[in-house]
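Subject: complex prediction, re-run

Hi both,

The earlier run crashed halfway through, so I resubmitted it with identical inputs.
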Amino acid sequence: MAFELREGVFVLDDVRNVSIRIGKVIEEEEEWEEAGPTPMPGIMELRKWDHKLLERYEPFYAPVQDFCNLCTMGPCDLSANKRGACGIDLKTAKARLVTIACCIGAAAHTAHARHLLDHLIEEFGEDTPIDLGPDVNVEAPNIRTIVGVKPKTLGDLRVALEWAEREIVKVLHATHIGNEESLVDYESKAMHVSMCDHVGMEVADIAQIVAYNLPKAEPDTPLVDTGFGVVDRSKPVIVVVGHNVMYARPIADYLEEHGLIDQFEIAGLCCTSHDMTRYNAKAKIFGPISYQLRVIRAGLPDIIVSDEQCIRADLLEACKAMGIPLIATSDAAVRGLPDVNEWDVDKIADALATGKLAGVFLTDPVKIGEVAVRVARAVFEKKKKGELFFESEEEFKNEIAKCTQCMNCVFTCPHNLRIDQGMAHAQKTGDVSKLAKLEEQCIACMKCEQVCPKNIRIINVIMRSNLNNLYAKTGKTRVGRGPVQDTEIRKVGQPIVFGQIPGVIAAVGCVNFPDEMGDLRIILEEFLKRRYIVVTSGCHAMDLGMIKDEEGQTLYEKYPGNFDAGGLVNMGSCVANSHIAGACIKIANIFAMRPLRGNYAEIADYILNRVGAVGFSWGPYSHKAASIATGFNRLGVPVVVGPHGMKYRRAYIGKPWNPEKWWVYDIKTRQKMNIEPAPDALLLAVETKEEAIVQLARLCLRPNDTSMGRQIKLTHYLELSQKYMGTLPDDWPIYVRSEADLPLKMKEELLHILESEHGWKIDWSKKKILEGPIRPYDAGFNPTLVEEVYEKYTKGK
Amino acid sequence: MATERVKKEEKYPVARRYQVADVQVSREAQAVKPEVIVRLVKKAKHPVLITGGQLLKDEKLVEYAVKFHEKGIPIIATGGSSKPLIEKGVKPQSAVFTLHQITQYMLDPDWKGFDDKGAYDVVLYLGFLPYYLSRMLSALKHFSKITTISLDEFYHPHARFSFTNLTANKEMHYRMLEEVINGL
Ligand code: SF4
Ligand code: SF4
Ligand code: SF4
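This time it finished cleanly. Structure:
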């Protein structure tokens, strides 16, 4: 008798009181690749790799507070690296704090993935195939490499997610008082949990691409309106805010099904807006978190639907003040609201539209769609459509007149913006241009208003002062495309690894910029013009959609969306960051044929030594940004952050002046050899855009660059340093292995400098370097830091 | 030393922190008069001035940095500040490294400095975003013996010594810089 195993409970007819329960049936897994050494790694499996990295890229700590008050034995004064009552010293306490931040970040994406996946499996079935389009065969490079499985269906993603959840809990446990005593081991755990983050993100984005039919690695996605001025105020406006599109999607569906999509405006704040536009390109993007109070205080929304992460914790208060009803949809942020899931739609819509309830907690997708639309229409119809931010010019001027220049606001503003001077100038001359200028830098955090003794609505004053420009900043974002195609990787893999494409700059993260948003464009355009590949996601991606040049074009309108030299690729929301890590992994796999399955250290080592990709976060603030960056670091990708990134307290910075730190095993010559310090940092905060540009170019250098590649990379580095630092960089000779590495146009001049200032020996008849470099150039150079990889490729060969 | 701190009766503004919330400080910087800074620098074995990116926004700061250089104080330029300095004939010890990297190097007692003359003992700071500099000062306060002196317009609680808060009085800030330079 054939007996087929299925999940479920079975009663055997003739055997009374006996039933057999069959849990998950483990099918024999397809042998898709030779299994590597670390499938489903725990804390210990990749520790050796982390210690290698941390030995080179030493952790750096910049405490924000000198004390610890995490438990009741404290508070403890840890200054000057003293130990607390539990025995922990200041550096280790900071390493623990960063690990906690990375746990929060990883948990955010992973819980997001869990919400989505459970919901999507219920709605679409666990057998829904993972199909990311004809050009993507390596569907889940992070999951393949880290977890060691090859998911074929939505249901298969559960294995990866369960692994990530388990590891996050283990690392969180390690942050409990009285656990780890080594800061390096805390950093290793931060890296571990941040690697889980990349798996969580990949699960979330693959699941939503597949289930919601979001763009599948298409370079030519539509352009959508982005910025403060996107909505037509003669229509009801539905605003979605947060990071999980699962809850907002039914609104678009409802509008489409009822033929209403053109009669309403649906616009988003933060990553939900990216995913809304990926789902339906009629949706629009208002902007990042710093636009939340801009949009709300302007009274633009007729209803707000919030989900999770990076939403203001005073959202309900802000909405109430403007008479905007709120639907909270995620259990991560219930906001004290009544749970109305059991109510019928009429009752909920009535409570919100009449103002009986300021907000509700509602998760039922079908109800959300209908309620949001009905309430938006009702609110829109009653709404007075007056001026924005102040009812009249007079009210605006009176508000400015109240300022006494006490400067309380200045010393609480994260940017020390000179609100006092703007107010004084406006009081004296009636000219609000100095206040208007502040708008570019203001993140609308509201800290200033709370310390103003005159209760001035400072944000409203600043926004109103720059209202015309704020409207005019509206531009176009190319809709997030999801993963990079295997075919694209086939084309660019070699030029990236050899260095002819000088680098991949990945601009991701939040909006805590040091200066005007426009700097982001200046920085990235420098690299686009030089034919680097620029990829972007999240808030950086939407900011680029509102920064225009004199011709009124955003970068998306000027540069193509393919993953190739000179392309600007919007991957999508935060969770689409996994495709950036994925692209690096795919280079190792598709171009270099390195196996992925459970083979993390080899792949990360490959990327560190060969793939000139650098992450860039100009305004990071969130915990998610911390875990995304740390996850990239473990994968061998350096990250440059803007000056606020310093407040993460920890960086990974190598010491290029110490030759002992810079070595690899060369598989070709079978030697341990000294190399140039490329890259010399894994996590670094810069102060200015000039510094960001030069460091990004600098950190694209890799030991494996060919002569041609090194020459191209050095050309950009030297040119950019001359342009922005006014001089050749201090350290350029360290990267020269032979005369062929030197930028062609400057070759003679540079040879002279090497001879006269650095004592190198030059054969001038052949223009050849005879003596000086750390190592000679060898076309077959095959570097690795990992003993096991060295053995694998040398044993018996 | 206490007698040399700035005092209210001398019409110096109060030492108001650049950020009200940066209060978790075990030992606050002494807000000092220019003459104290002059003495500290004169006594130093290996002093250096580090300039930051705000020199790109305030030409006066460039002028003062040039004057420090003329008085024999070596300069490490960060944040792109090398560009205007080089245009005015200054040759900084380093131009491409960030303050973040330099601080990491300074924390290592084995580092010989950009000039190979050994560890810097007194470090002056001019022209930084306050929150960026603050974290670096904190790292050096906890993990090194280096004497840090902020010459910026904001009072820096994590420095060893700092100008008082001069945000409301830029002219006084320039005068105080002038006084330090003249004293050297
Ligand atoms: S965790 Fe340790 S250092 Fe922190 S308060 Fe408790 S005893 Fe003190
Ligand atoms: S709302 Fe704007 S001006 Fe006010 S403190 Fe925040 S960033 Fe500064
Ligand atoms: S806190 Fe208020 S009164 Fe004081 S300077 Fe700022 S805006 Fe003016």
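The first helix of chain B runs from residue 34 to 43.

- K.
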